[in-house]
Write a structure and sequence with these properties.
450 residues, alpha/beta, 7-stranded mixed sheet, 4-stranded mixed sheet, 16 strands, 36% helix, binds pyridoxal-5'-phosphate
Length: 450
Amino acid sequence: MRQGPGNLGENTTGSMDGKRVPDGGMTPSLYLEACRYMPGGVNSPVRSFRAVGGNPVFIRRCQGSRMIDVTGREYVDLVMGWGSLLLGHAHPEVVEAVKLALERGWNTGALTEEEVRMAGLLCESVSGMDMVRLVNSGTEATMSAVRLARAFTGRDKVIKFEECYHGHADGLLTTGHAADFSSRPATLGVPLTIVGETLTLPFNDIEALSRAFEQYGQRIAAVIAEPIPGNAGVILPRAGFLASMRELCDRWGALLIFDEVITGFRFRFGDCGIESDVKPDIVCLGKIIGGGLPVGAFGGRREIMEMVSPLGGVFQAGTFSGNLASVTSGLKTLELIKDSDPYSSLEQNGSVLQAGLEERAAEAGVKVRVSRYGSMLSLSFSDGQGGGGEGRERHFLKYKRFFHEMLGRGVYLPPSPVESWFLSAAHSEEDINRILEASGEAFRKLRGEI
Ligand SMILES: *Cc1c(COP(=O)(O)O)cnc(C)c1O
């Protein structure tokens, strides 16, 4: 459903008026109270505006492509529940389905028909998924997938890529580009012994990947990767990179895990299919398949999945796993996506947005690089010099400024210079125009600065 401005509630005064609000959300006292009770005032760090400065926005109501904050300002949303809302906020048919589900009781602690339908739909749509286990988040999915791969292969080491994010499980929060591929914890509180089992490699480096296998091949349980990384901007896999993952895993007896928590169902109905002949052994899903309610899933080849408890010896469980609210929201969302097939118009909107951003930046004399796959996009001010220190610093400084210029003009971008922007099927041509208009002014403000 597409909603124009002013449709969200009575109090939309001051929204979309083009005036810049210096502090973002204009709610310092609420933010102070939030900070008293919650670390950094938030329940997930990136929401805190730490990376961009200023006070975070408090949202009261969302509908379609729009969000309204507690002061009544309206935003075109490009965060979209961090990519979990392919149909936009509060799709009326999803709302209706979840309401009906809630009336029936939502945590049976037993089986429901809906879980079976959901599992069936996932297995029919995602390549290589014979069986699936529903969990409650992407983090749970990747954590369990790694455990399963270790059990299946009887090995301990896991290869991950620095540019990929797989949630906040201990062994997957690593950095390091050492010659021996050793990892450092990317957070306090993780023992070295745990990251000692993770080899951290640069994405798109086939040579490093084959060297890692030559060095540790017999001990590697799995390679885990986002097939199209979306957590460090949008990164496209080099031709042959995913295929070489598959080939090396096969040669050395390791499993290939694709983390499709973002990419699953974002570009087509099912896995991302960017290199359709490269099939993983285990796929992790999340975000879109819950329609915005908490969910995750991991699944794969039958012989592997049969090792999951209670069938096999790999323990995995969850009080809320497969709860009726999340499953209904996900199922309804997926059914609506299947019926409406929004993917070509998402691609179309994505390409208009990309071209428009590039054009307006060029007109303003600001150098940007837009990276995009379908409805997932990122914009970098680093002058195309790669991820190196100076370019990165320039990008961070400019993005900070750009973010607030956009926010003040009613566009909610990720409050982080490294996160992707997401379009939904609820974004209209008018939304895209609004984003582009705001970006033109924002780029002009940035011209010549920093
Ligand atoms: C968001 C994300 C996760 C973690 O999912 P949560 O539901 O936040 O735990 C894992 N992998 C990828 C690729 C993600 O984008």
